[in-house]
Amino acid sequence: MRTKFIKWFFIVCLLGSGTVYSALILLLFPFVGRAGRYWLAAQWCRAMVAWMRWLPGVTCSVEGLEHLPAGPSILLCRHESTWETLAFLALFPRRISFVFKEDLLRIPFFGWVLRGLDMVSLNRGSPRQAHQAVTQECAARLAKGDVVVIFPEGTRVPHDAPPRLTSGGIRLACATGAPVVPVVHNAGKVWPAKGWPDRKGHIRVVVGPEFSSRETSQQDLSRAVHDWMKTALLEL
């Protein structure tokens, strides 16, 4: 009974605070620039990471931040839950731009804030047109110095599922020349792919080494990233 209460209290606090804070920062968006909007959104994410330590007792740590290149890069990240989409703005010192499905922009308040953050939305229509549009948008964000975060599996997966990389992120890296940095974590053990956290736990995020996309084939780059992620997941 107590566990169920904690879970639902956390859900109410997360959604409630997100709605209220979104409404407040939307009022400020016209008066601040791109960097200011990102900073405002990151404050709520930091508050949520701190809140999760207390309720429901979810802590986290990040290993390997020193592997992030000084310039723009592409993070190919494991997608196991909602947690990483909330926590990464708080945990990563560099500005990140998620590649996300366009449907999220239609969510009241949250989607409106997301639109103002100048990230990359993916329209899952024609695969060719979607790839071209995303490549152009990601190239624009990379030119601004962003770290572009792509979930190469395309959807949330259980923690024990083997890594499966679609070609989009690797093709983007080869097209733009940006380095690839793989990221794995064990959020799915604490916050299920379909559900909410209902127990205490510690989430480890591991940032892998930089893989150059220059002077290498898509196949070789994909294989190297896949092999690293597969090995790293076994240790989580």
Automatic annotation (TrEMBL):
This protein's record includes keyword Cell inner membrane: no
Any one GO molecular function term: 1-acylglycerol-3-phosphate O-acyltransferase activity
Parts of the chain that traverse the membrane: 6-29
UniProt keyword list: Acyltransferase, Membrane, Transferase, Transmembrane, Transmembrane helix
Pathway terms, separated by semicolons: Lipid metabolism
Gene Ontology biological process: phosphatidic acid biosynthetic process
Pfam families found in the cross-reference section: Acyltransferase
Segments forming a coiled coil: none
PANTHER family given in the database record: 1-ACYL-SN-GLYCEROL-3-PHOSPHATE ACYLTRANSFERASE
Protein name per Swiss-Prot or TrEMBL: 1-acyl-sn-glycerol-3-phosphate acyltransferase
Organism: Paraburkholderia phenazinium
